[in-house]
Structure formats: C-alpha cells, structure tokens
Design a protein that fits this description.
It is a single chain. By secondary structure, this protein is an alpha/beta fold. It has three domains: 123 residues, NadA-like (Rossmann fold, 3-Layer(aba) Sandwich); 100 residues, Rossmann fold (3-Layer(aba) Sandwich), CATH 3.40.50; 71 residues, Rossmann fold, CATH 3.40.50.10800. The protein is built from 15 helices and twelve strands. The strands form three sheets. A five-stranded parallel sheet has the order 6-5-7-9-8, with helices on both faces. The chain has a four-stranded parallel sheet with strand order 2-1-3-4, with helices on both faces. It is globular. 48% of the residues are buried.
Length: 343
C-alpha cells in the first residue's frame, strides 16, 4: 500500500473527526510504521483509547485489556508494540517472556495502577489471611504477582463468582469494586490503612481499596442530567470505573469492547459514552450511521502519550523495552492466565 492509498483509507473513516492536513501528515507516519512492522516481524496492539488516526491505521488488533491480553498470549511475532499504557505492556511481557515488548512512550503510567503497591497487597493479605486476592488488570506486575487472579471490567463479576470463597479482596479500583459488590450482592468494606477490620463492620464479603481512575471519577450524575435535558432520547453508556451513582443513572455499563458492540448492534437516536473521549471518536469513525454526541472533554493524559511519531521511533530504535523480573513474571502469569481462561 502506498502513502496515498494509506491516506485515502484513513480519510474514508476519519474525515469527520480528523482535519485533512493532519490526516495527510499522519498517513505518512502510518505508512512508514506499517512497512517497518513487516520488516521487523512485529505486531501492533492498539487499545480502544488510542487517538483516532493511530487507532484506525496501524494496529493489527484493537480492543480492551482482556482482548489484547489474549492476542498477546497467542502472537507468533518477534516484537510486540503495545499502544496502550505501561501495565498493559507489562501484561504482554508476562505472557511472552521470550519476545521483545515495546511501549512507544517512556512513561505512559496510570493513576489507578499507581494507587497500590505490592507491599500494600501483602499488608492486606496479612490482615485477612486466607482471603483470595483479585486484582484488576489495571495494576503493575508486582501487584499481579501478589494476587490469586486478575480481572478486567468485562469479566470482574464472573471472576469474583468463580472463586470458592465467601470473602474476596478486590483491588484497587474503588468504584469498580462497589459496582461489582452491588452486582454480586456482597457487602464491601474499605478498611483503614493502619488498623484491622472495623469491629462495627463484621458482616462483609468484599474488601476494597481506595484507588480511582482520574478520568472516570470525573463523571457525575449532573453530567447525565444536563445531557438528558438537551437530548432526551440519548442512550448513555458508562464505564464500570465510573462512580456507582453514575453507573446506576446510565442506560448501559460494561467494558469498552462491550460498549462498542452495543453501539454496533443497536439503533438509537443518540449515544454518549462516559469514558475516555478518544473512544467516542473511534466509534463514530467506525459507525458513520450512528449519532455519537461529542460532549465529552476528558482525555487520559497517559494514553495521550502514545503517538504515531513515538510508535515509529519505538520500531526504528527498539525503544522502550519492557522487562519484568522473572520471579515476579512467573507469579503474575498465573493470575493473568486464570483471567484469560475465565474470559
């Protein structure tokens, strides 16, 4: 495919969401990246939160954390370029110790992953001995290594219900934990950082942590009220990392992939996604017949670090290489593989 053909292909999808001058420039980058990944026997994985010009041009596979973990686990390529954030690239390395895993940005962190450490998990395990630990995939490798099982927003309920345990430690997202507790009928507590379980909270089945996504915690019920006043027929889709009252007020709540599927398979007057805003543009580009409201202004600063320019340099310069110490990788792999098996 030529640069011009790449541009025309991108224009067909993105003319409504990306200015033409930007498209022409980014088509040149996309063309070079696609040529280079063939030469280097690389696969590019793109999370649903990538900006549209990247999302619709260079990934071999796109999806949410669970889908991309599955693709990472089965790839036969020598190099995995992960267009996402660091914990995702770490997960790819956990599943592919012999392959080179590249993250296009040097940092690309995550406020949620940074909210908990392996030492925090060890302290909780000491205070609640024998209670299985479920960690959200949005955690770093050392936290996964301290966990019995990982989950995503799409399979969190199934993961919790798969455990033969009345009580579960669920980390670190506070809002996802509250939403899952509601779905599974469990009473959740958030014990203080220094003491044991509160004596007044003897009846509990889930132990949570006060971690939050800096994007999803910003959405409020008032946002929904304001939108419904302007567009009474809107269908509002909220990510499970949103506050429970926002999820309860929305029309549909599920993983990013489930949101995409919902839009594809329904025909509603208007849609609004309460999640990272680039995804709304990506869905609009893929579904030109659907009316997506562009009322969202919340971008993840960490996902936004991943650019076409840096993805090209990652392949050219073999940077930034993700490594996970083998002792941590082996323990984390058990938790991640169990998550993939549950699906």
């Amino acid at each position: 495919m030529t640069v011009e053909a790449t541009y025309q292909q991108m224009k067909a999808k993105l003319s409504r969401v990306v200015p033409d001058m930007e498209l022409r420039y980014k088509a040149e980058l996309a063309y070079e990246i696609n040529q280079l990944k063939k030469e280097k026997n690389a696969v590019i994985l793109g999370h649903n939160y990538m900006e549209p010009a990247l999302f619709h041009s260079i990934p071999d596979f796109t999806g949410d954390s669970l889908e991309l973990a599955r693709k990472a686990a089965t790839t036969d390529k020598d190099i995995i370029v992960f267009c996402g954030v660091r914990f995702m690239a770490e997960t790819a390395k956990i599943l592919n110790p012999e392959k080179t895993v590249l993250l296009p940005a040097q940092k690309a962190g995550c406020s949620l992953a940074a909210s908990i450490t392996a030492e925090d998990v060890r302290r909780l395990k000491a205070r609640f001995p024998g209670v299985p630990v479920v960690s959200y995939v949005n955690t770093y490798a050392d936290v996964k290594a301290e966990s019995d099982l990982c989950c995503t927003s799409g399979n969190a309920k199934a993961v919790v219900e798969s455990l033969d345990s009345e009580t579960v430690i669920f980390l670190p997202d506070e809002y996802l934990a509250r939403n899952v507790a509601k779905e599974t009928g469990k009473h959740i507590i958030f014990p203080s950082a220094t003491a044991g379980p509160d004596d007044t909270e003897l009846d509990y089945q889930m132990i949570g942590w006060h971690g939050r996504c800096e994007v999803h915690e910003k959405f409020t019920v008032q946002d929904i009220t304001n939108v419904r006043q302007q567009f009474p027929d809107v269908v509002i889709l909220a990510h499970p990392e949103c506050p429970p009252e926002v999820v309860a007020t929305s029309d549909f709540s599920a993983s990013t992939s489930a949101m995409i599927k919902f839009v594809q398979e329904t025909n509603k007057p208007h849609y609004l996604l309460l999640t990272e805003c680039a995804m709304g543009d990506n869905i609009a580009a893929a579904n030109p017949d659907k009316e997506m409201l562009r009322l969202c202004s919340v971008r993840c600063p960490h996902m936004n670090e991943i650019t076409l320019e840096d993805t090209l340099n990652a392949l050219k310069l073999n940077r930034y290489v993700i490594d996970v110490p083998e002792d941590i990788r082996m323990r984390a792999a058990k938790a991640v593989e169990r998550m993939i098996q549950i699906g």
